Amino acid sequence: MRHWMLLTILFALCKPVAAEEPMNVLFIISDDLTSTALSCYGNEVCQTPNIDALAADGMRFTQAYCQATYCGPSRASFLSGYYPHATGVLGYKSPRPQIGDRQTWPQSFKDEGYYTARVSKIYHMGVPGGIESGGDGRDHDGGNGADDALSWNERFNSPGPEWKAKGTGETLEGNPNGLRPVVGGNTFVAVEADGDDEVHSDGKTSAKAAELLLAKRNRPFWLGIGFVRPHVPFVSPANYFEPFKPFSKLELPERIDGDWDDIPKPGINYKTSVNMKMDSRRQRKAIGGYYASVAFMDSQVGKVMTALRESGQDENTIVVFTSDHGYHLGEHDFWAKVSLRDESSQVPLIIKVPGKAPGVCDSLVEMLDLYPTIGNLCDVPVPEHVQGKDISKMLDDPTHTVREYAFSVAPMRKGFLIRTDRWAYIQYKEDASGGIELFDMETDPKQFTNLATSPDHQDVVAQMKQRLTAKLTEVRSNELATSSN
Ligand SMILES: [Ca+2]
């Protein structure tokens, strides 16, 4: 019997002493959200008051990194507790066939008597295709995408019109003559939609989340709320676009001449201003559309937090807010995800634990650390296989550290990132034959100067190369031990 069950019974017998209630977990994840678009992370144009309020009440991490820079492998990783190269889940698949009967993060709570549920996208789901049809467009499982049935007591999808929403839309990508209609797929499209929040997937998600939070139940919960914005298409009710108009007033990020000259080929992101054929007007509108999507998603976070307060459980619920990876908004003329630069590999992360003082933590952390940390905070056993580290001490002391570097991968580019406080080391292919990038994050935080071939930095390059080899060996040393990863 779980100790809280026992305590509940004991305390019920010994009233009026209040029972020590088990802690709930409310896990909120946005899709493709870069921290650089949040006002609590310093954005001065895009205002995110609800996420800011959560940050003001919790611990905001400034150096949190995803383990893979796109949806599928990132989500499979932090939910299973394994690095992508441990399971070999490098694409858009459920980790279940690889992990067998080992527990996922929500499953470890479910098996301890928690009610576990997800609303919308927690494991991978195709956006927009899957959302249009109410599940995943490419990996069906009865409409549940790359989901994992064993993780949940209940699961809810949130279909929405996505790019087909009624309103004013424009395809910004691959549309230099302006003749291309509004399209679906992984395409930069902005739609200023008619109607209110609940027309859209995320509006339905926040409403369902509120319903679940307000429902009476006699056991604690682990509730995963997945918002699909600001993932493309940039669709939101038209009012969320207003603060960013005219789009011509939006600033493009700083750029320098010859920026691509020292970048190895796989380091040029898969989406660029050039191959997307986006002129500066379209680039500015893309930023405006992204910000509108962020503002819309932020509003939904506010509704979820209001419901949590109304439910009377906010003093008994750990809240985590994050994203599956970051996003480029035109830095180096790069757009979207996959890149291993900070805009794409670093994620927003806020952890609010009742009773703990708010703060800002600059220590390096990984999304993999969520599983053991939240498990330990809730006194839920953390399985041996979990490869992340417990960072709960950082919630009492933000100067606490648990790792010298964060590790992330971009399997689509055979890319690897070793990120220390000082250096961002990016290597393409395990033998480095795809090229290397090294950035001094103290003197060059925007990553304009690749020092990989600088004679003064060969010792750093050698050390990082060695670290990467050792890390991959460590990641692969597990009981799954599949040599193909
Ligand atoms: Ca994503």
TrEMBL record:
* Top-rank taxon: Bacteria
Whether Acetylation counts among this entry's keywords is no
Respond yes or no to whether keyword Metal-binding is given for this record: yes
Tell me which GO cellular component terms the UniProt record holds: cytoplasm
Mind telling me which InterPro entries this protein's record contains?
A: Alkaline_phosphatase_core_sf, IDS, Sulfatase_N
Q: Which residues form the Sulfatase N-terminal domain?
A: 24-378
Record-linked SUPFAM superfamilies: Alkaline phosphatase-like
Q: Which UniProt keywords apply?
A: Calcium, Hydrolase, Metal-binding, Signal
Q: Where is this region: Disordered?
A: 158-180
Q: Which Pfam families match?
A: Sulfatase
Please list the GO terms describing molecular function: iduronate-2-sulfatase activity; metal ion binding
Task: Give the signal peptide, or none.
Answer: 1-19
Its required cofactor(s), as named, are: Ca(2+)
Similarity comment: family membership: Belongs to the sulfatase family.
Name listed for the protein in its UniProt record = Iduronate-2-sulfatase
